[in-house]
## 1
Amino acid sequence: MLPPWDSAEPLSGARYSAVELATDGERVFVLDQLALPTEERYRTYADVAGVAHAIRAMEVRGAPAIGITAAYGMALAAAEARGLSSGGYLDRMTAAAEELCATRPTAVNLSWAASLSMRLAREHADADGDARWSEQCQLARGIHRDDVVACRKMGQAGAERIADGSTVLTHCNAGALATGGYGTALGVIRGVRDAGKSVRVIATETRPYLQGARLTAWELSQDGIDVTVISDNMVAHCMAQGQIAAVVVGADRIARNGDVANKIGTYGIACLARQHELPFYVAAPWSTVDQATPTGADIEIEQRDRAELTHIGGRQLVPDEAEVYNPAFDVTPAALISAIFTETGVLSPADVAGGRGT
Ligand code: MRU
């Protein structure tokens, strides 16, 4: 299916985008990641409820991408509130921010984007309705553009740490599909390629939602980058066999002490990397760093529906009587992280923790 946006150049800078705002500012287009890798299907949303649904259902996912989607949702709220007084506008925007932030609690980019939008709303609440809407569209597009620039910069910085001919292991999907475009962890892979070095990727399938098997493998294949999918329980074996040179993953929230919340399974991979003396890198923009959260233990971990674990493709794998535990994220302690790649360069977790490098 052709992308539905009407602008020649999507802000992602790629053939496809996780999310885009229509040029008229009245609709949000979401590439439905539930349909990948077999179908490229875009969904169109014209109100906040629709955008909140897309995030909750994980049609769009990945910390930076859901932050951008929330900002576009806030722009739709401003469109809906065009005829309202300043008080009515602020009430409508506050309700929209609450609805969007309640969708997924762990990725800090979501509340970060909503708070930027609320600050703008408060500053210009007295302006004319069309002007308020247009400013919110501009802010959201700016967040999108900045994210792509940040991904490219961290990709370039991180690529310097990856030697020519390396095989890099990544978990989940921290690519163009999870960001405004280009990707964080996969941005580093693209950075290695763009620097003229050869690189091969091992992608864990990432149970239960299978972001690695379905999304990372699709995205890298689209770019002609060599990718091999393994099941999550093969990581130790591949490391022991010397098949992996480094691990690069994304992040949903980095606490003030440098602990990193990311897709469930990341912590186990970090432990295995330490055991095998392999570098374990995190790639994330500064919008993922949360100075208000002191340590990883303070990060709220999203719990997801049991059906994600009990069923695959409609087929039931787990008996009805069994309980299911389905946390979407885990926390990797700062001590296991070799370096964090950001748009301001390669930093230690302690540098990120202290806000140095911003
Ligand atoms: O549950 P998801 O698919 O939203 O989780 C995504 C991840 O854990 C990513 O690694 C993280 O958001 C970084 S995306 C650049």
Note: The longest helix spans residues 129-159.
## 2
Amino acid sequence: MDICVIGTGYVGLVTGSVFADLGNEVVCADKDASKIEMLGRGEMPIYEPGLEEMVARNVEDGRLSFTTDVEDAVTRSEVIFICVGTPSGPNGQPDISQVEEAALTIARALNRYKVVVNKSTVPVGTGNRVREIIETNRRRHVDFDVVSNPEFLREGSAIHDTLHPDRIVIGAPNQSVAMIILELYAPLERPMLITDVASAEIIKYASNAFLATKISFINAIANICEEAGADVVQVIKGMGYDQRIGSAFLQAGLGYGGSCFPKDTEALIHTADRLGYSFDLLKAVATINRTQVERFMDRLEAALGGLEGKVVAVLGLAFKPNTDDLREAKSLEIIGRLLAGNAKVRAYDPIAMEKAREVAPAVCYCENAYDAAAGADALVLVTEWNEFKFLNLPRVLSAMRGKLLFDGRNLYDPVRMKRLGFDYHGIGRSWAALNGK
Ligand code: NAD
């Protein structure tokens, strides 16, 4: 099938590459000329494991191409995937202007029947809005349909998630349109849900909001553990064995970040308010998430006896491991607070430092974790990259000036850290409980 993907970000580039790999002819279109130029040179504008190889293979086989001419790409395709950004507006409301712009381009290029598939995360009702824009702006009276096909991939495992999704949701106006999209996904042999457009749009927000709720819930429990002399890691084990609860997304830490959860929870709160329902549960989830770093930093500041003139090493900058994405990364909040308190920040991340230099230029970027630790009064673990699990920790400690280790992801074993000589602080882990181990 001839496919056009509008937007070559994390979702669009991965979606386009996977559909090409499944044997379709795919053209990925983006209005950002620098991204398309990079892709033309075989360079990836984002870091995603396995992506470069997949893109190269399909470009070489002639199934995948890139362009800035969105209109032309639409003209040549039967199915068009909209994969543009839907950031938060100033009050947390979802900004769908990129989706509207893509719809306008599709309207102008409409030359024969096409299925327009919205993969961007959008508030309920956007499918209708896209239909309306195309209907009122098309130059020829040509038929089209609008489908909602929300994306559930996770950055860092995007290729794997796209090839092996837990489910594929197809919100379509009728069965025959749904079948066109179902056929595209059939080679993946994964569970598919065919539903209406509005329900599909809500499924995406409800899923992300539920996962965010799990994270804030366990962070609230961690905060109680700290006060009560309990160990949240034990609590999580005891809860996670219950099959009704499960252990996924039940890790205490600095809270959720990234390009999806913070904006999608805010968007759902906003959409609910607009529809006349106050989603108080989700409002509390967002508040807990916002205060999690503040609590952590208050503890760090108290342990350091103030931030002025202190040297703090930050390990991990990306919002989670295996990505270079810094959107809503907790590292940036932490660095902001450290710099505002006149501390010196030495940071290291295996992949995200290039992007971090642009947004946090006042930080001293280091060669590796040991270099970052050099002369530090405290070490703060922010992103649980695999390589940090296997650090030579005695070497880290001997490079430091102090011995404070603030572990924002509960990556390390507190008892072992204490034995090594660190003054260890995790999330929801109290020494009273750990002494009993
Ligand atoms: P992104 O910002 O990485 O990429 C969006 C791309 O769209 C950019 O390259 C931009 O230049 C391009 N673009 C914007 N308007 C355009 C237009 N009119 N014509 C052509 N190109 C245009 O965004 P992303 O992270 O890939 O997310 C895209 C959507 O998917 C969002 O709604 C997001 O919420 C959702 N989503 C993201 C993820 C994720 O992990 N990143 C997962 C699931 C869903």
Note: The mean pLDDT is 96.
